[in-house]
């Protein structure tokens, strides 16, 4: 037995509704994934490092930097031309092995020493870093997220 023309018409009319419902579910799922990624500390650290989220900073003289100038990526990534980088790349190698800066005792970064560096400009060996490094007004959560990201970068 063949379906009636009316039944076929009703089925054909429901196909666009199904496609719309599937598309709506996909959009909702992607939005939920984006919200969860935003809440992840590593994802938040990525956003801060690359300037997709604001980091307030001042240069040593106390002058506030524009948010676009305070992104870590501006100084701690390779030059766009592929030339050498003047400032250390921030990655897991930087944070994993103890170093002996300025001939002192071996030190390594942990979250607390990283956040102290960000806020006060003092490294784990209790030495003031260059005045070129901005001092950041960063919350504990954002500093932890930034450390989580940079300490895991390949």
Automatic annotation (TrEMBL):
<dbReference type="InterPro" id="IPR009056">
    <property type="entry name" value="Cyt_c-like_dom"/>
</dbReference>
<keyword id="KW-0408">Iron</keyword>
<keyword id="KW-0479">Metal-binding</keyword>
<keyword id="KW-0349">Heme</keyword>
<dbReference type="GO" id="GO:0020037">
    <property type="term" value="F:heme binding"/>
</dbReference>
<keyword id="KW-0812">Transmembrane</keyword>
<feature type="domain" description="Cytochrome c">
    <location>
        <begin position="40"/>
        <end position="154"/>
    </location>
</feature>
<feature type="transmembrane region" description="Helical">
    <location>
        <begin position="20"/>
        <end position="38"/>
    </location>
</feature>
<protein>
    <recommendedName>
        <fullName>Cytochrome c domain-containing protein</fullName>
    </recommendedName>
</protein>
<keyword id="KW-0472">Membrane</keyword>
<dbReference type="InterPro" id="IPR036909">
    <property type="entry name" value="Cyt_c-like_dom_sf"/>
</dbReference>
<keyword id="KW-1133">Transmembrane helix</keyword>
<dbReference type="GO" id="GO:0046872">
    <property type="term" value="F:metal ion binding"/>
</dbReference>
<dbReference type="GO" id="GO:0009055">
    <property type="term" value="F:electron transfer activity"/>
</dbReference>
């Amino acid at each position: 037995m063949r379906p009636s023309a009316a039944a076929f018409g009703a089925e054909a009319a429901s196909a666009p509704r199904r496609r719309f419902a599937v598309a709506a579910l996909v959009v909702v799922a992607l939005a939920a994934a984006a919200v969860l990624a935003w809440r992840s500390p590593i994802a938040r650290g990525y956003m801060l490092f690359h300037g997709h989220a604001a980091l307030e900073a001042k240069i040593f003289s106390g002058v506030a930097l524009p948010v676009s100038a305070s992104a870590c990526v501006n100084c701690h990534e390779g030059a766009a031309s592929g030339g050498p980088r003047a400032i250390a790349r921030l990655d897991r190698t930087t944070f994993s092995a103890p170093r002996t800066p300025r001939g002192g005792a071996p030190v390594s970064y942990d979250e607390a020493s990283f956040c102290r560096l960000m806020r006060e400009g003092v490294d784990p060996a209790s030495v003031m870093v260059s005045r070129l490094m901005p001092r950041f007004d960063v919350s504990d959560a954002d500093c932890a997220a930034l450390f989580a990201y940079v300490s895991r970068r390949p």
